[in-house]
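User: Can you recover a sequence for this backbone? Please restate the input before giving your answer.

Assistant: Of course. Working from this structure:
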């Protein structure tokens, strides 16, 4: 269920979301980002506005298929396997998963699918974390018409969020810090050598759909690359978490931002988005009764929110 938030800076128009029906297979291609090959999928008419979907961990682009099929009725939709996932290359070195490399991957993809027109960006979990790097990069903001973020805050913003609450240790702030620290247990675990990979190979990968269903009641599809996605995707945490949280930068954006907040997210607390007005010029914040894997559990609601925001920001940009 959608609820308005005080962070909404303007109303969004209502629209009807198409019913999800079996769609046509995406068109497949590959893009080179330096030495790394990225697997890209496209749906819909390339002459229409382009929406780029970026997945999180430990998923690959398949998690977006239901949302992509719904949006492809009206838009040119693109999803890609991030480095380390799906059919894309899996670099071995930790430093090859840094945010600047992930930003370069996004640029390589949009250079390929929409070289002459800006795109609308939609991202979930780690896809959103890495997308903030592009959205807050001044040189790239003219290439992004809008950004819809779900369950993936900017690491620099979170570093400042932690500092602000430590500097003002009210009961509410300390409670938020403690709860989020517990929710983030896996981040500390992923810093350990060998053990996360061993667990993925020992059975977590095969059991992943069942685990997600037990944790939040969401049905995720069986993924043939799940073990490899889990093993290699851990490098995202090792390459970026500690540097950005301990030494946060000032990262601002002029891109219109819509934040979709699942209230039942077991990993990302809703209040992590409370300070976003400090870093955005135009912000919309919408809460849902949903768990972390909203693209899988609520594809129609997510596609509807994206469609309305894309249509709204496109009209605003045309009128400017």
């Amino acid at each position: 269920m959608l609820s308005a938030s005080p962070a909404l800076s303007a109303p969004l128009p209502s629209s009807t979301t198409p019913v999800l029906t079996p769609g046509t297979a995406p068109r497949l291609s590959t893009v080179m980002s330096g030495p790394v090959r990225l697997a890209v999928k496209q749906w819909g008419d390339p002459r229409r506005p382009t929406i780029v979907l970026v997945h999180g961990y430990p998923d690959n682009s398949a998690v977006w298929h239901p949302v992509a099929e719904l949006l492809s009725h009206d838009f040119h939709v693109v999803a890609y396997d991030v480095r380390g996932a799906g059919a894309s290359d899996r670099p071995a070195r930790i430093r090859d998963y840094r945010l600047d490399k992930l930003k370069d991957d996004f640029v390589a993809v949009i250079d390929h699918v929409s070289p002459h027109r800006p795109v609308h960006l939609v991202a979930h979990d780690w896809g959103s974390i890495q997308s903030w790097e592009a959205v807050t990069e001044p040189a790239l903001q003219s290439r992004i018409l809008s950004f819809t973020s779900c369950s993936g805050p900017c690491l620099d913003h979170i570093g400042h969020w932690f500092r602000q609450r430590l500097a003002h240790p009210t009961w509410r702030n300390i409670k938020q810090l403690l709860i989020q620290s517990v929710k983030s247990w896996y981040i500390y675990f992923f810093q350990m050598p060998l053990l996360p990979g061993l667990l993925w190979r020992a059975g977590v990968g095969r059991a992943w759909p069942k685990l997600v269903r037990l944790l939040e009641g969401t049905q995720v599809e069986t993924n043939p690359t799940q073990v490899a996605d889990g093993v290699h995707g851990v490098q995202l945490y090792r390459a970026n978490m500690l540097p950005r949280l301990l030494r946060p930068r000032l990262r601002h954006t002029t891109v219109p931002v819509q934040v979709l907040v699942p209230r039942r997210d077991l990993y990302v607390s809703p209040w992590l988005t409370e300070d976003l007005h400090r870093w955005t010029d135009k912000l919309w914040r919408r809460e849902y009764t949903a768990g972390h894997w909203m693209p899988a559990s609520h594809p129609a609601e997510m596609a509807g929110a994206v469609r309305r925001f894309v249509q709204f920001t496109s009209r605003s940009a045309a009128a400017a």
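That completes the design. DSSP finds ten helices and eight strands in the chain.
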